[in-house]
Amino acid sequence: MDKKDIYEHLAKIYLDASSDKKNKSKDYAKLFKPLFIVGIAGLFSLSVIFLVNFQKHKSPDSQIALLVSTDAAKINFNFNPAKKEVYSLNLNKLKMNRFKALEFSARSKNYQDNISLRVEFTNSFKEKSEVYVTGIPNKWHDYRINLADFKKISDWSEMSNLSFAVEEWNAKFDSGVVYLDNIKFLKE
Q1: pLDDT over 60 (residue 13)
Q2: What pTM was computed for the model?
Q3: How far is 182 from 121, CA to CA, in rounded Å?
Q4: Of 126, 114, 115, nearest to 161 (Cα)?
């Protein structure tokens, strides 16, 4: 074999190998397109199934429209100098037309105390309405008050304040603590 034959032989080996690579890449490209389409269709199907199941199995938390307070609040009352203690939340002209109820958790520190809690809304037009929650226990208890129970509020479009008050005549002892948590407005 002379030099020319060796070059031709090497060129033939190289060119055959490179054409195999081209054929393989074309085969991969032909496989990739259907696999890509099947993958996209599968993701779409899973998304639809998830959304349908999510709508069927709503959790109780899906009713929450607005979580007002995430931290526990403490009303530390002592009626020797004062006649009531208040925990107040500024609602900043919140439009509450779409909400149906107020929900919160409460507990008293003293198991012997029999405390009633005054829950009061005020709107931007200075309308005030209150509802009393009686018998706050020593362990956490959930309360739900329909906004329709606040009879003196005629316009829920600009709410300015939500307050929780312990008044002297609604507690057995002159001092104590009431805790509030999970204050939220519900759509349903």
Answers
A1: yes
A2: 0.62
A3: 17
A4: 126
